[in-house]
Amino acid sequence: MSSIDPPAAAEIRLLLIGPPKVGQSSIANVLAGRNVFPIAASSSSSKTATKSPRHYTNKTILSNKHLLIVDAPPLFVLKNSTSNEAEMKSLAECIAYISPGPHAIFLILSCDDKKNDLFDMEKIVTTVFGSEALKQSIVVFTNIDRLTEKNISVEDFINNQCKQQSLLDACDRRYLTIDSSTNDLTKHETFIKQALILLNNLWEKQTIFKSDMFNTIEKELQHIEQHRLQDLLKPDTSIVEQGAMKLAVREQLRDDIHSHRELADSTFFTLQTHLQTIFKSLVQEVARYFEENIASS
């Protein structure tokens, strides 16, 4: 990604959300411009497995800004959701990575609706992040090559056959499609160009998504950052150097959240009240779903 007019920030943060086995990590690699997210790790996981979120920062790809891509774990499987601590900790880690909030959210779904059967993207996003998050989101349909095999045009699929009309409307019809039959990053230039156009249009209206949950964790992270910066900043440190140091400290902090149990537990504790409310809502939605399906069967 290169030709773009991003928000006036030193770092651009993109969050990817999707059910298992729809090519989410492949999309992350396309956006990163290199294969940095292991694809086998997510594709081989079960539908209920908890996988740690993964992040990658490219320091040169986006107009000399840091491009942070967070590949969220497949813990948003609504109809199989449980309120266990492992899933909540994984979500806490993901939120800490993308704090103080994403500049854009990519909602990854397959053109094969069978792969989306266990997943209500709109309900999950609004439950976890709030309805305002959809105003900062772009829907990405993978496996578009399968439509070609069936002689179905993208327009026909989007307008007539896709079951995600409510989600598309909530995202102001922002969507992308990608051929998932190849992992050759050089063959995805059209996808990147279209993504840049949508991102530019999105950022004309709003540059970053924030919520009380992000505000809560950001206060905690900034407190830790200030403590670490005390040993680095000198009286004659320039504003440019200060900005670079803050980015470096935040990058290290993200790594430490994953590798240091004490810091990970602190992050979870900070967000615990928010997460308990979220998972309570998810469990209620699970019960409602099964009641409706039993009644209709």
Automatic annotation (TrEMBL):
<dbReference type="InterPro" id="IPR045058">
    <property type="entry name" value="GIMA/IAN/Toc"/>
</dbReference>
<comment type="similarity">
    <text>Belongs to the TRAFAC class TrmE-Era-EngA-EngB-Septin-like GTPase superfamily. AIG1/Toc34/Toc159-like paraseptin GTPase family. IAN subfamily.</text>
</comment>
<dbReference type="InterPro" id="IPR006703">
    <property type="entry name" value="G_AIG1"/>
</dbReference>
<keyword id="KW-0547">Nucleotide-binding</keyword>
<dbReference type="InterPro" id="IPR027417">
    <property type="entry name" value="P-loop_NTPase"/>
</dbReference>
<dbReference type="GO" id="GO:0005525">
    <property type="term" value="F:GTP binding"/>
</dbReference>
<keyword id="KW-0342">GTP-binding</keyword>
<dbReference type="Pfam" id="PF04548">
    <property type="entry name" value="AIG1"/>
</dbReference>
<feature type="domain" description="AIG1-type G">
    <location>
        <begin position="9"/>
        <end position="218"/>
    </location>
</feature>
<protein>
    <recommendedName>
        <fullName>AIG1-type G domain-containing protein</fullName>
    </recommendedName>
</protein>
